Input
Amino acid sequence: MEEGHYIRYSGWNSIAGRAGGTHLTIVLPWWPVHIPDGFLSAPVWLGLDLMAPPAVVLVARRAQREFEGARAPLLGVMGAFVFAAQMVNFPVGIGTSGHLLGGALLAITLGPAAACVVMTAILAIQAFVFQDGGILALGANTWNMAVVGVLAGYLPYRFWGGGKWRRVAVFSAAAISVMAAAVMALAELLASGIAMPRSIVGVSVALFVISAVLEGAITVAVVEGIERLSPRLIRPAAPERSWALTGLGVAAVVLASCGVLVASTNPDGIWRLAGQLGIAARATSLIRAPLADYHAGWLGASWAAKAAAGLAGLVLAGGVCLALGAAAGRKRGR
Amino acid sequence: MKILAVLAWLVAIGTSPRITPLLAACYFALLVGVTILARLPVGAVLLRAAGVLPFSATFAVISIAAGDAARAEALIAKSYLSASAVLILAGTTPLPKLLRGLESLGVPRFFTLVVQFLYRYLFTISEQAQHMRMAALARGSQSRRGRRASPRFRAASGAVATLFARSQARAESIHGAMLARGFTGRMEPLAAPSPRAADALFLAVGVLAAAALRFLPGAVR
Amino acid sequence: MTPQPLVEVRGLRHRYDDGTLALDGVDFLLFPGETVALFGPNGSGKTTFAHHLNGLLSGEGFVSVCGRSLEKKNLVEIRRKVGLVFQDSDEQLFMSTVLEDVAFGPLNLGRTPDEAAPEALRALEQVGMQHAAGKAPYHLSAGEKKRVALAGVLAMNPEILILDEPTTSLDPPAGRSLVALLRNLPQSKILITHDAAFARALATRAVFFERGRVIADGPVAEIVERFHWYPSASNATECLRR
Output
């Protein structure tokens, strides 16, 4: 068979390479954040399958209107680049190495619209050709990584990227991108009724944080490398810094996801979480309250109710993302 | 179209509330049957579908630890069966045909074009990355414990940055090559898929089988 | 009566975005039936020049191809008549399969898929690659890719062929078969090459580029001798002996 080549190509290397985090000496095949089929419950994957395509279209069209046939090769090639880049080992210490996921890198260099399309294409290829991530779950994975991940990877850079905070902006963009995508995925799994003891959730989140930090460091290094080679390749960030807007936006995204996550497992956790993140407390109190009320009502309810709560949270986060994306697009006057 | 059949299959699997071992065996047998029909190497297919198992197994273990053994079974069974189904689809359909099929289901052509180009240059650029890695290795950047990771980290980021720039340049050249052969903005497909009777039959059989496996156990009980 | 030149270039100038002068007043003529070799050091502007001839680049000066100037309305027609084979075949074969790639040109020229496929197959037969019609370009060798790229260009029925360093990644057998193939093609040709023997086998005239200008124009042997354009451990006569 002609196409037999790709069957030999994939394998452990590709899955491990896309683990997006450390592969410690004890090999934990953890968290490629590509959810396979069979994990998500029907309301969850169906809901996301319905939500994802319009979201992609919105992000792709709103922030950038000039999509002609000629862009397809560029986006395809850059998608291939991301694939290849995800295999590169970034050693960070004894026996540990990280890998690039690429959502934030794409968003910063090509813009959120292009990044969204490229990530979606990558996810499609991973699902169909490499069976890395399910087909029914494609909506969920796309939402997590191509919409939330890209937007979360773009907005911090867009607002903070000018001036001397540039490095921090790039780092946080990449880190938040990974965190948001991973937490969203975890939330979806929990909303689907997969039982996870608190300790495991804790471990997961800890691993997410490590992955996020790695992604941040790697992205910063690569972006600086690109700038040295050819500064034209990177889109300029906004010169003005809008702390309030960004802070609100970023916190909202992360906390909505965390809120859903924790709401699915443990009501007390919300209060603790909110307390720990006191900085943005005022902004998020709006979000906290409805969720807490939701959960009080759903305590001990069936999986359908939990799923509904989960979905509500996801829609909320989704709405926030889209609104921010729209605001960003309008701000640039296009 | 095969895609629809696979989708129906996946939906059936995905929405089954419980998967007894017997049921799983039925699904499995059907899949193996299709594999043989498709003239694919059965062993290789089964092995590759197992790629999803580490992920599923981890969650299965967690589920068992949390007291939800049924869920654990379901996770492993569902993910493995789903992965196998998709694998069969991928193994029997070259990507261009798969993309045309998706287009006929409503996926926008722009998107399938992006995927097409991605796939075309996937191995080319990966090889390029491999060569860079080889070159770096040849200059002594082996992974050794205890050594300072910083220079290798920088080397890796430099390599990725270079790959980025070269990929962009490559995309420009490809655009030039397209223009040089008269590209005016629209890309016409060479062959449009036309549904044949055999396809419709396959779809019907597939959907029926999936529905049967999905609903019969509930009805029988 | 002298025949009309197929390509007429006078005083062509081209500046890169960063201001450097790529072409500094190039004069060039190509007559029907000719095969001209373009020699010159790397960076002397040969490829830039070639990209002007099918309208990929534009600059100042007079350029006329097949009697047409390089205005927007003529571009598609010119790109049909001028077939450019790029140096990097991987960038030229961008479709999923060989057949789709070769059919790209005819489809752009307005053929229906039913017309384009046989035309593509005919072009593939011309270069001897019809057996590979369903293959992915990734699986081809360098020589095979070059031939498919040539087929993709031939499928458009050009009058002029421009080949940019065609022998660079080819092993000697592939190079020889390329020479044989090109010999049988009726089009007028421009060959950008470092390979003096390749040029001698096919070209009657040669032109030498240096720093964006044509500084010499004459028979291949003479140019090769004058500029010592032969590989290191030989001399001109040895190199050009056939």
